[in-house]
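Subject: Interface between my chains keeps coming out wrong

I've been trying for a while to get a sensible model of this assembly. When I model each chain on its own everything looks fine, but I need the whole thing in one frame so I can look at the contacts. Pasting all components below, labels as-is. Any help appreciated, I'm running out of ideas.
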Amino acid sequence: MKKFFGRFAFAVLVTVIVLYAVFPFYYAIVSSMKPASQLFRVDYFPRQWYWGNYVSVFREQPFAANILNSVLVATSVVALSLLLGVTAAYALARIRFKGRGLLLATILGVSMFPQVAVLSGMYSLIKALGLYNKLPALSLSYMLFTLPFTVWLLTTFMRGLPQELEDAATMDGASPWVIVTRIFIPLMWPAMVTTGLLAFIAAWNEFLFALTFTLTEDVRTVPVAIALISGASEHELPWGNIMAASVIVTVPVVALVLIFQRRIVSGLTAGAVKG
Amino acid sequence: MPDNAQRQLPESRTGATGPSGLEKTRARTAWLFLAPTLVTLLLIALWPLLHTFVFSFTDATLADLSAYRFIGFDNYLQRLDGEWVGLLTDDGWWRAVRNTLFFTVVSVTLETIVGMAIALVLHRTFPGRGIVRAAVLIPWAVPTIVSTKMWSWMMNDQFGVINHGLMALGLLSEPLAWTSDPDLMMASVLMVDVWKAAPFMALLILAALQMLPSDCYEAARVDGIHPVKVFFKVTLPLIRPALMVAVIFRAMDALRVFDVIYVLTSNNIKTMTMAIYVRQQLVEFQMTGYGSAASTLLFMIIAGCIAMYIALGRVRFDAE
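Reply #2:
Try treating it as a single job with all components included. I did that and got this:
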């Protein structure tokens, strides 16, 4: 009997955890499929399939352009971070040289930078480069937080690879560049996918820089676009549109995270626990 | 540098070329491979940081960043018409500092407790564990802006599901204005942040739990020690190093919190944190000099908190 109650209590606990984790997103989906007239009655289950909000969110603002902007920025940030990160990680993980420890500590330090502490300096840099209100401003500034952790994670991964491979290639006269591109990158794919995904999610979700370095609607990324959806007055926010937009930008990220669950968890723990 | 290279023990692979020559070539290669990353970081981290620092001693405004005068420490503290003015005497700034510290301590504590509970559940084997773990990842994957908007809708005073549910359960007699009542704002912000960040905590704690040796648990079970005692006497001390690192990561995020608060309660003084204050000065009031001074103080306060935490908690970041 005691065992039964123990099991029952555990099952209740598990149910509470799942409901707590899933309910807000579930409720956003339910709300996004309600016409404005029904939005003000609380329903726990969808009553109909109404797609009007999904249409109007694209009609009332350049939401398609916003999505494209987010995709362009996040993809370019991932590509640049991985390219720079993998070369830097090779040097940091595989070559013994003076100042390596200090360099690693500095890079870890930069990854902990509070973004807002460099806001005015970054703003003036972007102005000086003529990038204000342009997408490259975001690609460049996002490297501030993606590049250090990319380098850090890839260094951790690369340290774990066997030395013999590299030795054999060196014996055959392969240059370091060949070693990186022909030996390490093919072996590092899983690590690069993990790191790339984490960088993608960080860039996709970023808000402060995107809000500060863009001005016009058509240059906004999705988090800014969603945050700034407004109605006729502050008390008449178009919640249907906001929920539809939220679902649209969240579904791909959630799908990616669920597909690559194990990789992401290992990446997060490698970055934090071992870091 | 060459002396040092010679003093190092020649490694097995250095072979025929001689240790010093090959080591030198390798070191040159290392710097060559690091150069693009270092140049990028100098440009986007060091340069903006130094610039912010320099701006803090000027009267620069956002409208024209090239025209400014150096005014010494006037942004921080100056005597004007017989009164001390400046950031250090600004009640708004110190309230933002207090709010930030309060938010950080409470949110990280709650996230650690909730995260620990989730991790302990996931550490047991039961049917459907994979699905539960996937479900727990969802809050982490949802963009912060989206999770804030979702909760903002759920906390809507008139039509929100939270008021509706609590009233249906008889826990509330009348709806609460979660996001506009000054006394509830901070609690609302904390609710959203805990929901979003507790899963991250749970995953890190779970990873630590799974690395624990099982033999001490066997021993405890054989001796018939109560599980609660085992948790506090065995589990907690063993995962403490990992927990400390997880806490510092979360604390660093909490100290610079911006998105949740900006979207949920905007510039309200009840929830204004250092980051919100800095951005308001910089962008809305266009006061680059004064805002940069606040940025600089924010940087020093965060660095100070982290240093204190590392010193007190004896956290070790072992690179090797």
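Reply #3:
Confirming on my end. The beta strands of chain B are 78-80, 83-85.
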